[in-house]
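__Record contents__

***
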Amino acid sequence: MAETSAANEIHEAVLNVYDGKSNEGSITFVSIPFLQKLVAELVGTYFLIFLGGVSVVVNNNNNNIITLPGIAIVWGLLVMALVYSLGHISGAHFNPAVTLALASTKRFPLKQVPAYILTHVVGCLLASVTVRHIFTGKQDQFIGTLITGSYLRGFVLEFLVTFFLMFVVSGVATDSRATGELAGIVIGATVMLNVLVAGPITGTSMNPARSLGPAIVWHEYRGIWVYMTAPVAGAVAGVWVYNIIRSTDKPKHETKKGGTSFPKASSCCCGASK
């Protein structure tokens, strides 16, 4: 009887989780709301990379039928749709650089960063595997990012476009004075603009996971260090510069436990064909 009672107590403790809270002395592995956030990030990251990657493959296999502007529109619309559909659930990061940048300013719980980053990488890996299995043989096209020219130029460009994106995200999605309802449109438009400008040179990654997933699946690691470092540095710099010039007595949007609250959604994961 004692063993049965102890087992029931542990079972109740594990199930009794909500909003990241549990009774004192209970055993909690993961809260249901946080698990929902991870699923939202996984699904969002997967479809962002899958549909964006398919646009690159179709373009390369059909004599640039979509064109660079078309690919830019695809990524911009994808980001906008996912921000509006998942932003209120998980914050719509889909990008380790975004997660790290928000955590550096205490707008995202530091203890949840590893889980978010792992989810982003897994989502990109699954999407890359799916694309490669759908388009085989002569249609098999690398959907990752490669640098045209020097790595230094690629680093600077990736830093600047990610800085600009995160600066815009901070302005429209984390500042109480901004029109939050337009956040998804503005962020999507910024992604589209960055792809148009940097796509032919770096592929416009702005996202370490977006570049790492295809690199692992296609075994193509040239310049990967640029995509692992420049977006993170650019995102952190962008969010901190905006915080410096924010200067307001009005209260900031409150951050919900386990993620940013909508419209504090932020998403910047994309890549263009060259």
